[in-house]
Amino acid sequence: MPKAVVLLSGGLDSTVTLAHSVNEGNETVALSFRYGQRHEKETEAAKAVAEYYKVKHVIVDIDLSMFDSSLIGSTKQIEKDRRSIGSDIPDTYVPARNMIMLSVAVGLCESAGAELIYIGANSVDYSGYPDCRKEFFKAFEKMVSKGTKAGVEGRPIKVIAPILELSKADIVTLGKQLNAPLHLTWSCYEGAETPCGKCDSCIIRKKGFASAGYKDEAMK
Fold it and tell me: How many whole angstroms separate alpha carbon 14 and alpha carbon 159?
């Protein structure tokens, strides 16, 4: 049985990605991060999803508070109701976040004897982050093949982004087909009792469920 490390934020995309890994028959480990986010909602969601699938769940604490992003801390306001989502890089971008998280996943893979890393990145209906594109993952995978024991010994770790080129509607539909617990997920950049409905993540999620023709049971 192949072993896989899945980056799990607790959001829609990462949950569908975890469901995909499990469905593929991988021995799956979920990897989440507390990196100084504005709230604990997504971490709580990640715990619930990991418990749903009964997979090992590793939560890593890293401090990215020195990075400039409205997702970290609470001093900067998150942009709302943006009309040009995906056309530029918003202030919710966290510098080097995927590089750091994938690097930790690589270390966990080597330590656990895993050969696959799954990440729920998407380059279709997304906010415009540069580290959510195919070019980035190809370059990262090449670097890992040159800079790890596994790579040097001919056992390169593969980075798999199964929903990279799917629309949000397609991701919702795939999640439903896989019986993923979408009702447990949290996508909002804010940490209020209910999603704000106005940040990029909320807008893209709402559009995805509507286009797929499903009710979002996580929305109150």
Answer: 14
Q: 0.85 exceeded by the pTM?
A: yes
Which pLDDT score is estimated for 128? 78
Residue given tokens 């995805």 in the structure block: 208
* The CATH number fitting domain 3-212, selected from 3.10.290.10, 1.20.1740.10, 3.50.50.60, 3.40.50.620: 3.40.50.620
Quote the percentage of the chain above a pLDDT of 90. Answer: 74
What does the pLDDT read at residue 81? 83
Q: Which residues of the chain have pLDDT under 50?
A: none
